[in-house]
User: Which sequence fits this backbone?
């Protein structure tokens, strides 16, 4: 009962403050971004600049054939500004170097073709056709994209010279070499015979939905860590915490009330983002259980850190370092090929993956297992924070 | 006036040694820069991963290792469990007289495309030696992702400096130092500048250190310093406005959270939206700072563009500053 009255009192204070409304406003802005700015399908921004070193009618024939086969579509021509540039090139095979110095600035309008994925019809790459080899080189250098010369030999075979930036991996260079060791027709017909087996009908999130776990994890649970610290330092500055030393109320009730306030804010803001975007797809029971437990665990961490410092300036280094390190698993979430083992030990890794599973209505066992881990870890941190606050409180 | 500002700067510098504020602004970017240097190669190598059986032909495994990161497994069960894990990995395993590709089903399309392409080339007996392709390199060594991370780090340093300036001002308010300033010979503007100078200078040094640690030695350092100085003014304005407009730490924390929006929005618009949508972030000084830094770090900057971007950062920061002078006066009174 005492706890409830403390919570209601804290909520009244929070409702009078500026912060509670910032949270709601942030959630509404993020929802608007998701609904009106982020598209459901991801669009490729891969570009290539090509110079066709072959008779124009053959180049046109090759382009038309790709368009007819549905492999590409003609787009509006694109304007580029070629700025003065000075650079060198080095041949991978011979080591021969060449220096280039262009001191003029010119505007070029390039024919643009969009290469499409043969199975989905989605944009795979945008190809810009330069009129001269020099323009192609300047564009590839200036735009930091791949450039290529497509040449035709006397026997009618097309060969490619690629202009790479220099930081590409050896594996990618090897792939470029080997992809041009057999004729495209032979490769394509063999590709069609490949046997691909999928282990299950795994669900995927679309481009927009894929952002929801990130917003919830970082703007919700993770922010609980930061905001609970701000609450504690605010109360420290106001002398509220010291006042507890002379009241019959126990310190843990005060601490848990702070967490309840954060939980209320996080539940409201996360619902504002999740429900309109995800609709009825997620398992909402699991969502709220996981959200509440992870926010409790991270807020408890915030309480423990706050117990070691007098004010927010002094705590800033530790707070900032923890927040940045907790953001690192975001790289793995967005770059699935970057998934080193050490990254999986960061609590935000299962946090992100857990919310993703919930959005997919997927592996409930994973979510429940990590809910238990977060609950146990959060409880330990909360007990430690309580001990620390009890020790450091003197009248 | 200058002398008084420097006196406040010196006082802040001395007091900051106790709570290590300046050290945080300088050291945090350096630690993060070291992290970027260590992790960037792994982030850049986005080659598709392949799972294969240890019992597979050694020559087949060696072939695939030329093009992808290969993980080996003793049994099919182990291999399938690996494929079912949360990251993207395709398996290529022997099946009757040929090979089959195993996927979990939720991988990005490029993973399937890559695995199919590699298996096709292997089955055709394709070798690098028979290629008709030639490769020419511009000799760049810094991957774009690393430059983007360093650029984000620069914006985060600006934000960090702004946050710390804001927090220290809120604390000064709580301790009534601000009221005390009104009865000293220093003007309010002088106090504003002196109070913020420490955070700004620390941010500038932190940014330069971070750029050096991440290996960007041969960039145009005059441009870096110019953008750094304007970014310093930006962090001063952000920090001071946040500090003075916030009544307490909670409000300052809320403002910090709000600040994420223009920063993240500026980066997202610059990186992900088409040219026709770039105007949507022209109002944000962070957009112009990010753009200028991006051009400098990728060594494609020209003076005209950099000067324009820095002029935009400066103008937008000053517009915000002058537009909020009444609020600053109120906060100081």
Assistant:
């Amino acid at each position: 009962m005492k706890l409830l009255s403390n919570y209601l009192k804290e909520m009244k204070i929070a409702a009078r403050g500026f912060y509670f409304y910032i949270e709601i406003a942030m959630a509404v802005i993020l929802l608007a971004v998701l609904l009106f700015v982020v598209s459901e399908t991801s669009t490729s921004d891969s570009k290539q600049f090509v110079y066709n070193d072959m008779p124009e009618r053959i180049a046109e024939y090759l382009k038309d054939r790709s368009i007819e086969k549905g492999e590409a579509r003609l787009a509006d021509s694109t304007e580029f500004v070629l700025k003065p540039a000075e650079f060198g090139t080095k041949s991978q095979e011979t080591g021969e170097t060449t220096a280039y110095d262009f001191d003029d600035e010119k505007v070029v309008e390039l024919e643009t073709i969009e290469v499409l994925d043969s199975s989905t019809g989605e944009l795979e790459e945008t190809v810009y056709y330069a009129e001269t080899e020099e323009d192609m080189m300047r564009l590839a250098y200036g735009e930091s994209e791949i450039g290529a010369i497509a040449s035709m030999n006397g026997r009618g075979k097309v060969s490619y010279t690629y202009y790479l930036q220099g930081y590409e991996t050896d594996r990618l260079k090897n792939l470029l070499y080997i992809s041009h060791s057999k004729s495209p027709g032979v490769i394509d017909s063999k590709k069609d015979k490949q046997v691909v087996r999928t282990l299950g009908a795994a669900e995927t999130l679309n481009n927009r939905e894929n952002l929801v776990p990130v917003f919830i994890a970082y703007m919700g649970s993770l922010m609980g860590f930061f905001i609970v610290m701000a609450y504690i330092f605010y109360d420290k500055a106001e002398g509220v915490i010291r006042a507890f030393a002379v009241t019959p109320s126990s310190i843990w009730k005060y601490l848990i009330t702070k967490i309840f306030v954060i939980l209320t804010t996080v539940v409201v803001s996360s619902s504002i983002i999740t429900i309109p975007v995800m609709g009825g797809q997620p398992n909402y029971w699991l969502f709220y259980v996981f959200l509440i437990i992870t926010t409790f665990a991270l807020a408890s961490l915030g309480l423990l850190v706050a117990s070691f410092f007098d004010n927010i300036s002094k705590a800033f280094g530790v707070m900032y370092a923890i927040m940045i390190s907790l953001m690192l698993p975001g790289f793995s979430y967005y770059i699935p090929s970057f998934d080193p083992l050490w990254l999986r030990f960061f609590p935000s890794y299962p946090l992100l993956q857990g919310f993703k599973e919930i959005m997919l209505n997927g592996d409930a066992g994973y979510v429940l297992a990590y809910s238990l881990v977060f609950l146990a870890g959060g409880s330990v941190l909360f007990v430690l924070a309580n001990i620390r606050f009890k020790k450091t409180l003197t009248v | 006036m200058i002398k008084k500002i420097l006196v406040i700067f010196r006082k802040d510098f001395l007091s900051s040694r106790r709570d290590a504020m300046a050290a945080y602004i300088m050291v945090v970017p350096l630690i993060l820069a070291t992290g970027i240097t260590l992790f960037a190669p792994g982030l850049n190598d986005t080659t598709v991963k392949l799972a294969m059986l240890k019992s597979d032909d050694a020559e087949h495994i060696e072939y695939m290792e030329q093009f992808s990161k290969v993980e080996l497994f003793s049994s099919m069960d182990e291999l399938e469990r690996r494929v079912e894990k949360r990251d993207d990995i395709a398996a290529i395993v022997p099946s009757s007289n040929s090979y089959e590709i195993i996927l979990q089903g939720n991988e990005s399309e490029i993973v399937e495309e890559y695995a199919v392409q590699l298996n096709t080339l292997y089955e055709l007996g394709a070798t690098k030696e028979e290629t008709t392709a030639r490769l020419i390199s511009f000799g760049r060594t810094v991957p774009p992702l690393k430059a983007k991370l360093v650029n984000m780090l620069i914006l985060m340093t600006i934000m960090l400096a702004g946050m710390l300036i804001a927090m220290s001002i809120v604390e000064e308010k709580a301790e009534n130092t601000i009221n005390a300033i009104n009865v000293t010979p220093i003007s309010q503007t002088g106090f504003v500048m002196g109070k913020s100078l420490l955070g700004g200078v620390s941010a500038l040094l932190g940014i330069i250190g971070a750029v050096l640690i991440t290996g960007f030695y041969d960039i145009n350092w005059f441009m870096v310093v110019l953008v750094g100085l304007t970014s310093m003014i930006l962090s001063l304005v952000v920090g001071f406005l946040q500090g003075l407009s916030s009544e307490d730490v909670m409000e300052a924390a809320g403002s910090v959270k709000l600040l994420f929006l223009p920063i993240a929005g500026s980066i997202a618009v610059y990186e992900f939206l088409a040219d026709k949508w770039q105007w949507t972030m022209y109002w944000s000084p962070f957009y112009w700072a990010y753009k200028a830094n991006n051009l400098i770090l990728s060594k494609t900057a020209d003076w005209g563009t950099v000067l324009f971007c820095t002029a935009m950062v400066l103008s937008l920061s000053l517009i915000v500053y002058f537009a909020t002078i009444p609020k600053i006066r109120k906060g100081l009174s």
Summary: Strands of chain B lie at 49-53, 69-73, 89-95, 98-103, 134-137. The CA atoms of residues 31 and 210 of chain B lie 8 Å apart. Chain B is about 70% helix and 10% strand. Chain B has two domains: 2-40+141-332, 47-130.
